[in-house]
Amino acid sequence: MSRELPSPSSIAWEPGRNGILARLLCDAVESLECDTERARASLFRAVALVQQTPTPALDTRGLAPWQAQKTIALIDEHLAGRTGITELAANVRLSQSHFHRAFKEFFGRSPKQFILQRRIERALGLMLATDSRLSDIALDCGFADQAHFSRMFHKLVGLTPNAWRRARVSA
User: Is the pTM of this model over 0.70?
Assistant: First the structure.
């Protein structure tokens, strides 16, 4: 019994990790019979994305849920600019040191790492949804320049932005 899955191009772009995972998994299923290397690459990227995802700790010493939501909203709102630890901590009425500790406890990574991940997720969405130049996407996502964007993208995704985009276009 074969089940029809939507093609990656037919999935409505959903910002964030779930949309990216859906596209990667559909791409893997679609290419499984004809291009096993492409399917394997998509699955490895999906696994890497899941492993990099912050998971809230069950410990109550971290941020309260309202503080986490408010912090994520502020980060996303100022993703293209600079959001410092001072501003994030003040937003949820905590000292900088306590905020940093609580954030890391709740999300399993530092605020800096979390912001970098959010920037990369936003860049992935823009690369899928637009034909903008990579240098423009880099600036829109808060990176200093395209070189910085490419280094961080390669570090987190495993491919350069251009190679990742070409793989999606050729699909």
Answer: no
CA distance 144 to 20: 24
124 and 45 in one domain? yes
pLDDT digits (tens, 9 = 90+) for 119-168: 999 999 999 889 999 999 999 999 999 999 999 999 999 999 999 998 88
Residues 93 and 71 reside in one and the same domain = yes
Let me know: does 47 contact 87? Beta carbons within 8 Å: no
78 lies in the same domain as 161 = no
CB 146 within 8 A of CB 136: no
Rg (CA), the chain: 18
Q: How many domains does the chain have?
A: 2
Could you give the count of Cα atoms lying within 13 Å of 168 in the half-sphere of its Cβ?
23
Same domain, 14 and 45: yes
Rounded CA-CA distance 29/36 in Å is 10
**Residue range of the domain that includes 102:** 65-108
Q: At what angle do helices 111-129 and 161-170 cross, to 10 degrees?
A: 40
